[in-house]
Design a protein that fits this description.
Largest sheet: 5 strands, parallel
Oligomer: single chain
Radius of gyration: 20 Å
CATH topology: Hypothetical Protein Ychn, Chain: A
Number of helices: 6
Strand order of the largest sheet: 4-3-2-1-5
CATH superfamily: DsrEFH-like
C-alpha cells in the first residue's frame, strides 16, 4: 500500500513537471533571447538580419542584444555595413519593435571610445560578458551567438 501511494505521488509529480514549461511562460508571453555580438560588423549584419526574421515570426519575443569587443562597432554613430548603409536605421527600427541594445562599458574604456559615440538606443552596461551571464542565469534568457 505504501509503495502504491509513493508510485502515485511520483506519477503526479511527473505529470505536473510536464506542464511546467507551458505554464511558466504564460500565455502570450514571448521567449526571452539574448543575442551576443563580439566579432565586428559582419557578425552584426548577420545578427540583425536574424533578429528581424525572429521578430517577424515571433513578435512577442523579448530580445536583448549585448555587444562587447569588436561587437560594439555597429552601435557607434556613423557605422556602416559593407554596402555603405548606416546601421542607425536598423537599430532604430528594431528598438521600435522592442529590441534592447546593451553596450559593454569595459570595451568603451579599453578602446577609448567616448560613450557619446554610442547610438542613443545603445544602453551602456558595466560589462557585456557579465550582462550575458546575468540574463541567462537570473532572467532565463536563451543564448544565441550569430
Amino acid at each position: 500500500m505504501r509503495f502504491a501511494k509513493t508510485l502515485i505521488g511520483l506519477f503526479v509529480l511527473f505529470l505536473s513537471c510536464l506542464s511546467l514549461p507551458a505554464s511558466a511562460a504564460g500565455q502570450g508571453e514571448g521567449i526571452k533571447v539574448v543575442y551576443h555580438f563580439s566579432e565586428g560588423l559582419e557578425q552584426a549584419s548577420n545578427g540583425l538580419r536574424n533578429i528581424r526574421n525572429h521578430m517577424e515570426l515571433d513578435p512577442t519575443a523579448k530580445i536583448v542584444v549585448v555587444a562587447h569587443g569588436a561587437g560594439v562597432n555597429f552601435l557607434l554613430k556613423g557605422a556602416k555595413d559593407k554596402n555603405g548603409n548606416e546601421y542607425a536605421s536598423t537599430i532604430e527600427e528594431l528598438t521600435m519593435s522592442g529590441v534592447d541594445f546593451r553596450v559593454c562599458n569595459i570595451t568603451l574604456k579599453t578602446r577609448n571610445i567616448d560613450p557619446k559615440q554610442v547610438h542613443s538606443d545603445g544602453h551602456i552596461v558595466p560589462s557585456g560578458v557579465v550582462e550575458v551571464a546575468r540574463l541567462q542565469a537570473r532572467e532565463g534568457f536563451v543564448y544565441i551567438k550569430p
